[in-house]
């Protein structure tokens, strides 16, 4: 009898042990952060404090990204299946798809109404199984985000077309984009800097940056001890991108003269402004050509190409360019000429305090944030070698731009700065150049904001991969060119989507 009771108790303890294990394991699984949360942290979505003291939590930022992906339709099951197959090298891809689909179903991500979407559930459960690792999660997030980038090679942001969902859900998009720091003004955190760089841009954006620089630097008594540089270069002028309405010209001039916050100036255009802007752009090109004594063709001062085959190197269809007397010998009007003109227009007596970085195009590719930042850093290196910084080794640079580009341009610029310091052996000597990006709030169409989101996540991903390589001491699974919008293979044949046991056919959209 005693032996029977001992066997019974032993059996009960064994069952209790097994149950305890499963209960504990389930609990551990439930509190373990999802790999989406870990990947989002690696991408820098960790929360932040706004200049007014308001704190934005990590959870708010991570859910904001999911909300934008949901609005854009990136969580439709057909899109998830496509993207999983396109990144490649996902083990048990059907099993992974089945698990993601379950999260999609219960979070209601695979439908169009943002009010039904449970972003918190998706944040805490997306990529939670052991069938997908952190690298897979990062790569898939980048691949998905690159749909937002959406720009073909050489396409400019102003040429993007807004899809219908952006208009329908504009308020929801803005709320989420604001949490991702793509909308609001970013303020300088210090009263004194060792230099200031104004990021180059097309004429309208650069005008606003220069005016806002003047407003903040002079009105707010922010001291720039060293140089202020405009980061311009050999980007050819054309009427479509560099024109503006006469009304806008006048508003910008008044904002400069009265030295007021550019965010308080109403800059909206009417629906039929395109032709007016182009005509003003032509007149502006003529003005620049006369000022710089650059000869245009007298009988046909402008030229536009219908297709790529007609275009000479560096030019593209549907853009209205200056038609020079001799394309091969005549100096062309560039962003550098615009920068000089705008400094004369808006900074009058202060123009001598600002220099321009004139970055050359390389292989017919126009200068960009990275190449102009490289040249600006090379200029600082010369000052360091000339002893102009004395014993100072921590150099603070204010990068003046505007949203939705502030964080992306700051990341790109900081990376270039670090590479140049490393190149000259100055990092080992203790030199640091810290870039702080600031500027006015977004005044762009949502199509441009959305594209900037895709570009921003690319830069965040580059930093995350470097960190993963250093921590895990292994190379990434996939080359980034397989993931980016402009370089990935858009003609991959994807197998038919499998039937998902977690979802009824009625759940699939």
Structural overview:
By secondary structure, the chain is an alpha/beta fold. The chain has 2 domains: 42-179 and 463-507, no CATH class; 192-441, no CATH class. It is built from 17 helices and 11 strands. The chain has helices at 2-31, 35-42, 58-71, 77-87, 93-107, 119-125, 134-149, 164-168, 170-179, 203-219, 239-242, 246-258, 273-291, 335-347, 369-385, 406-423, 446-472, and strands at 48-49, 55-56, 192-193, 195-199, 223-224, 228-233, 302-304, 320-322, 354-359, 394-402, 432-440. Strand 10, helix 16 (406-423) and strand 11 (432-440) form a beta-alpha-beta unit. It starts with a helix and ends in a 37-residue tail after the last helix.
Supply the number of structural domains. 2
Termini separation: 63 Å
Hey, roughly how much beta strand do the residues contain? Answer: 5-15%
Principal-axis shape equals globular
Number of helices: 17
Which whole number gives the mean pLDDT? 88
Q: Report the major sheet.
A: 5 strands, parallel
Query: How many runs of DSSP E, i.e. beta strands?
Result: 11
Structural class of the secondary elements?
alpha/beta
Helix fraction? 40-55%
- Low-confidence blocks of residues: 18-29, 503-509
From the alpha carbons, calculate the radius of gyration and give it in angstroms.
27 Å
Strand adjacency order, main sheet: 9-6-4-10-11
- Order of helical and strand elements: HHEEHHHHHHHEEHEEHHHEEHEHEHEH
Keywords: Membrane, Transmembrane, Transmembrane helix
Transmembrane segments: 6-27
